Please model this.
Amino acid sequence: MLIAQITDTHIMPRGQEWLGDAETNVHRRLERVVIAINNLKPAPDIVVLTGDNIDGTNHSGAYSALKEILSELRTPYYVIPGNHDDREGLRSVFQAQRDSSFVFDHSEARVIGLDSLAPGKDFGFLGNDQLQFLKQSLNERRDVPALLFAHHFPVNVGIEVFNQMTLRNAEDLENIMRFYPHVIGLVCGHFHNQFSTLFAGKPLYISPSCAPNFFFESADAKRASHINLEPPQFSLHKISGFNFWSKVISVVRAERTLVL
Ligand SMILES: [Fe+2]
Ligand SMILES: [Fe+2]
Model:
């Protein structure tokens, strides 16, 4: 099974720019990622958007712009929220999904997306509803591997400002991941940087972002110092048996394909 992950798109309403700077160009960055995913061979089975899908205070305008760009995707997609999202806004726009968390079943695996949004906060929290949803989803199907997705990562990442924005109740998630041997790992966003480690004795992968990635001058930085306007990035996850591998794709050029 093949999963494409797009994270931290930070889409603004049309006519507005992320961080107030036209060069961030988040709409165009996502359009290029959509083209690149549509050109993948083999095509992924699903696309998962792991939060900070929008930014700014005009939630409905931003979600409209997001949905319009995603309508070009030729692969079914699922959306979970990050700290910049609005749970009700997301639910109302992506009605086909019906909720801010999801389960996707494939013959080879079950994919579970969790809602770690704590309204008004930059850190994450999995409420009782999410923990129960996760346990139920894991109990329902134990014969195939389960891969979990959430916006907030549950570990420190070596940069102080992001250590303050982790998943607060990491222990609750860790207990569940340790209890169910068929959980093969956890995939997150939020950091605007790639990062890999172990959590609950299993792989934890953090994808770099579609919007520009953050750079920090020191580990104890209180905020990001700058962004580089490098190409938008997304990740591919291949589930093979009870293992998965992940790779980053930088969309250097996606306006057209060169047929060989
Ligand atoms: Fe973000
Ligand atoms: Fe975030």
